[in-house]
Design goal:
single chain; alpha/beta; 7-stranded mixed beta sheet; 33% helix; globular; binds S-adenosyl-L-homocysteine
Length: 223
């Protein structure tokens, strides 16, 4: 009876998601109910490679192929919390990876534009997004350090890989009242930063330590 088994499996994963949010997100200080609810809904186990699906609702980061990783659930929630989304924003995400964070974002803002430099990851993420009938998230393969000029300005920018410094094109594509959240620094010494524009300058707020894969590109680390 495969259909009954599948339902039972889905129920089990849904249960694990509730526990994940309680233990690894809420217990660590994330209080925004919209973010918690979005994370209870998005089936993280479908985004990670099947060999690590059993660990999808654990506290850790996981390998996703092509030497990349999906961030731990708490970090996804923390970065989204720092964006302060009301639901109306146009958001640029750099580093689609599996597409998990893009789908969480799609439930919390108006539109998501996500860029991934590795073809195979972008293709798989775009397929999943289509299969899940998420209509407000678009993925493209490109060097995200250039931003997405056709779609600029963005109310929010979120970067899921660590940059050597704030990439200038991203500052240019940030709306005047916008904000950007990104990790900055070399492996082993990264800080999570929140960037806002103040006239022609940027203000950078330190939001704690971080551990991300490198942002590789023209305005990132060199290959
Ligand atoms: N947010 C993802 C995880 C991202 S991991 C998720 O939810 O699964 C970071 C990703 O950033 C990797 O897939 C890596 O290939 C990508 N990346 C690194 N440099 C990039 C660049 N210049 N442009 C676009 N993507 C980049």
């Amino acid at each position: 009876m495969p259909s009954i088994d599948k339902t039972a499996e889905e129920r089990e994963f849904a249960h694990q998601r509730i526990l994940m949010v309680d233990r690894h997100v809420k217990a660590r200080g994330i209080r925004d109910e919209r973010i918690l609810q979005a994370m209870r809904e998005v089936p993280r186990h479908l985004f990670v490679p099947s060999v690590v699906a059993a660990k999808a609702y654990g506290p850790g980061a996981l390998p996703i192929g092509a030497k990349q990783t999906i961030s731990q659930p708490y970090i996804v929630a923390r970065m989204i919390e720092l964006l302060e989304l009301s639901g109306k924003e146009k958001v640029l995400e750099i580093g689609t990876g599996t597409g998990y964070q893009a789908v969480v974002l799609s439930k919390l803002c108006a539109k998501v534009f996500s860029i991934e430099r590795i073809n195979e990851l972008a293709l798989r993420a775009a397929e999943l997004i289509r299969a899940m009938k998420i209509h407000n998230a678009t993925v493209k393969v490109f060097d995200g350090t250039y931003g997405w000029s056709d779609q600029a300005p963005f109310d929010r920018i979120i970067v899921a890989a660590a940059a050597p410094e704030v990439p200038e094109p991203l500052v240019q594509q940030l709306a005047r009242t916008g904000r950007m959240v990104l990790p900055i620094g070399p492996a082993g010494n990264q800080r999570l930063a929140r960037v806002t524009r103040v006239g022609t300058r940027v203000q950078i707020e330190d939001c704690g330590s971080a551990e991300f894969v490198p942002l590789v590109g023209k305005f990132g680390w060199k290959d």
